[in-house]
Amino acid sequence: MEMLAIDLSLGLEKLLLIGGIISFSLLVAMYTTYGERKIAAWMQDRRGPNRAGPFGLLQPAADGLKLFFKEEIIPLTSNRMLFVLGPALAMITAMLTSAVIPWGPTIEVFGRQVSLQIADVNIGILYIFGVVSMGVYGIMIGGWASNNKFSLMAAVRGASQIISYELAMGLSLIALLMLTGTLSLKSIVAQQMTGGWNIIYQPLGFLIFLICVFAECNRTPFDLPEAENELNFGYHQEYSSMKLGLYLFAEYVNMFISSAVVATLFFGGYDIPFVDEASLAANIGVNATAALGFAALFSKILFFLFLFIWVRWTIPRFRYDQLMDLGWKKLIPLALANMLITAVVVLWLNK
Amino acid sequence: MATLTNRAKVLEQKPMSFMERLYLPAILKGMGITLKHMFQKKATIHYPEEKRPFSPVFRGLHVLNRDEEGRENCTACGLCAVACPAEAITMEAAERLPNEEHLYREEKYAAKYEINMLRCIFCGLCEEACPKDAIYLSETFAPSNFTRKGFIYSKDELLIPNPVTNKESFEAAKGQREQQLKNK
Hints:
Chain A is mostly helical. Chain A has helices at about 1-45, 60-70, 80-95, 125-145, 150-180, 185-195, 200, 205-215, 230, 240-265, 275-285, 285-310, 320-350, and strands spanning about 105-110, 110-115.
C-alpha cells in the first residue's frame, strides 16, 4: 500500500511536470514566431506586427486562429494516413526531446524532493540523438504522402541533409563526452557547475555542434527542404490549415528545444554564472535558487533563440552542393580532428 | 580599348584566402550589420495615428469655391475646361434668375459641372486658368470607389460647404494650404 502511495504521487508529479513543460514550450514557440517577425522587421528597418494588442502581442494568437479556421484540404491523390501522420510526427518528435533536459535543480514541494527533469535517463544524449533524427520522418512522410514532385524533392533533400549533419554532430559530441565521461544531462550540468562551462574546453566542438543544430532545425542557411523560391515551400506545399500550422510550429518548438540542449551541454544549463549555488541555496532557500537557476537557463535559451533568428535574417541559403560540401568535406574532418585532439589531451592529463 | 570613364574596375579572380574560405568572419561581419540595423531609426510611419504633412504645393481633390456670403464663384466661362490637358472637365452654363442672387455671384453660373477623376492628372492648370478663384485643388486625396461612374464628381460633390450656414466644414474643406502659401 505504501509503495502504491509513493508511486501515485510520483506519477502525479511527473504528469504535472510533463504538462507544464509541454505547455511552456508551446507558449515559448508561439512567442518565438512573434519575436522572429519583430526582429526580422527591425533588422530590415521595419516595425513588425504592431496592430493586434499592445505592441502586437496578440499576433501569435491571431495567426493560430487564422490557421485553425482555414479550410483543410487533403489532396485526392495523396496517401491519406501518411498525410495526417506527417505533421503529427513532426510535432511529437519536436516535443519528445524535452523529456531529458534538466530544467532546473531539485526543488522541495511539501517535503518531497522533486526533480525538474522528466526522466533522468543515463543515456540522455543518445536519447536526444535518436529522437532528433526521427524528426526528419515528419518531413519525409509528409513530402512523400503529398504526391507532389516539389514536396518529394524537399523530403529527399531534408533526409540527406540531416544524415550528413548528424555525423558531424555526433562526432563533436563524442569529444564532449570524453571530457564529461557521462551521457546523463543532469550530471553534465552538475560537472559544469563546479568545473566551468564546457564551451571553455570545447570551443570548436561547440561551433560544429551549433552549425549542425541549425541544419537539424532546418533553419536558414540550411532551410533547403522548404526553399520557397526553388521548391515552392517544399514538403509542406500541399498542406493547409492547422496541419501546415503544426509543421511551422514544430520548427519553432525544435528551435526552443535545441537551444535548451545547446545551453545544457555547453553553457552550464541551469548554472547561474559566477554564483555558488550551494551557498545561495543555504541563504535564500532551495526553491528560490531553483527559480533563479531556471531563469538563468531560460535566458541562455532566449539568447540562442535570438541567435537562430539573427542568423536567419543575415545569411542567404546555401546551394545544395555547398551544403553537402560543408557537411562532408569540412565539418566531419574538423569534428574528427577535434575528437582526436581531445582524446590525446584527455589521455595526456590522466597519465 | 579605351574606357569611357576612369571608373572601370578590372575583375579580380584570385583564389580566396584562408580567412575568406573560413566564411565565419564574413558571417560575423554580416551579423554585425543586421544587429546595427536593429537599432536604427525606422522608415515606417504609423499611418492612421501619424500622418505625413502635405507639402504646401500639394494638389489634391478639386473644390468649387464660394465667396464670404456663400455664393458660388464659378461663372461657367469654360477656361478651366480649355486649360485641362486631360479633358477631364465638362460644364453647362445657365443664366441666373432674378431671385437667385444669394446663390450665384454673377449673372451666369454652372448648372452642371463635372470632373472625371480618372482622367484628371491633378496638374492644377484649371486652378491657374480660373479668373474667378472658383476652382482650386485641396489637401485631400480622391478616395477609392467601386465603379467608374463613382469617379465622375458632380457639382454637389465638388462644391465647398456654405461658409454662412456651415462655417466649420467650410474651413476644413478650405484647409491650411492658402494660409501656408501666404506665410511663405
